[in-house]
Amino acid sequence: MGSKKKRKEIAGIDQEDLVDPKLLADPDSYFCEFKGVHIHHKIHDAESQTQSIFQNQTHVSNQINKLCLPMILLHGFGASVFSWKKVMKPLAEATCSKVLAFDRPAFGLTSRVNLSSETGDTKPLNAYSMAFSVLATLHFFDLLKAEKAILVGHSAGALVAVNTYFEAPERVAAIILIAPAIFAPLTTPKIVKENQSKQDNQMKEDNSSIRKNPIVGLYKLLSKITKNIAMAITGMMKQMTDMLNSLYRKLLSTILRSSLAIMLLRMAIDKFGTAAVRNSWYDPNQVSEHVLSGYTKPLRIKDWDKALVEYTAAMILDEESNTKPSLSKRLNEISCPVLIVTGDSDRLVPSWNAERLSKVIPGASLEVIKQCGHLPHEEKVEEFIAIVENFLRMFAGNSNKQYLQPAM
């Protein structure tokens, strides 16, 4: 008899019998269809909690309950609804409302979309793009029948939260960013404003000099003509650059979606997948097998690898970044309450970046949890919930403000 062929595994997950994501659903899982994608989500409702829970609420918690605003939780890269498992029920109690978490395309149990199979004259919205994630988030506002909601984004999910705010600021009551993977600008808006003020003063001085000395005026005129010529040349160069950039993007897109890229991704997940989860905690030894199995469960789904490659390609080749202002330059435009929570020992997104963000976003509150890594909501559940409750308590008394009025 011949020897039995060894089955292929990635991060300990058998790759021979991959299945449809719905077959891996939990008893409390839900699926809804949005733009052809079956999105996996879970909901915890404060109204469904036992009466004893409400009898034990303190006066402070009763103040929090006045908010009665739903929460939508947005997971980070490589995570899923599973990462919110420990905090969904406490958050529902804190907000006295529904808390919903969903898996974005390429993650968790949401269906994997084969973009190459899509046909038609009109180009459909890329299910793995930021634009899709934003619209999906707003779809869940409607599913909850909520005019307003609180967005909670972890790591890459923080990007979705902030982009959703800019898409529909009137619907976002508050934002909670956990270890946000958002690049904080090196200069604050105040510094930029001061530099602009100096430029304005310099312009006024230049105009005064021209009136006093005609030679200076002639020099300025020649300088302006030279500048216009330089701008024209720059414009031509930009057109050539855009053309080359388009060719570069097409080439990069082909490479990212190649069989080689998929093979390299599978190798990386196999070698570093579980190690990355452990490294996200302050103490890697505290990561249980249950946690690891929750993170590796999606590796049992058909086309999980192709979906991750498509997500990566969409992230790198983000076409909207060419038409919209940089997110880091718009952070100072956020006007709703913002809480930023980070771990002091985050190895993936350092806490100093969160500190910078708190200085750029007007009125943002910053909380740093000690001896905590990249996953405060998993590693330090009680401290995380206490911080969120305190944040909600701060604004419960300001219910007269428009952004905290519950939907009727």
Structure description:
45% of the residues lie in helices and 12% in strands. With 408 residues, it is an alpha/beta fold. It has a domain at 18-115 and 125-187 and 317-404: Rossmann fold, CATH 3.40.50. The strands form two sheets. Strands 3-4-6-5-7-8-9-10 form an eight-stranded mixed β-sheet, sandwiched between helices. The longest helix has 43 residues, at 214-256.
Compile the SSE list and pairings:
Elements: E1 9-10, E2 13-14, E3 30-34, E4 37-45, H1 51-55, H2 59-65, E5 71-74, H3 88-95, E6 98-102, H4 130-143, E7 149-154, H5 156-167, E8 172-178, H6 189-212, H7 214-256, H8 259-279, H9 289-296, H10 304-316, E9 338-343, H11 351-360, E10 365-369, H12 376-379, H13 381-396
Parallel strand pairs: 5-6, 5-7, 7-8, 8-9, 9-10
Antiparallel strand pairs: 1-2, 3-4, 4-6
Helix pairs in contact: 2-13, 3-13, 4-5, 6-7, 8-10
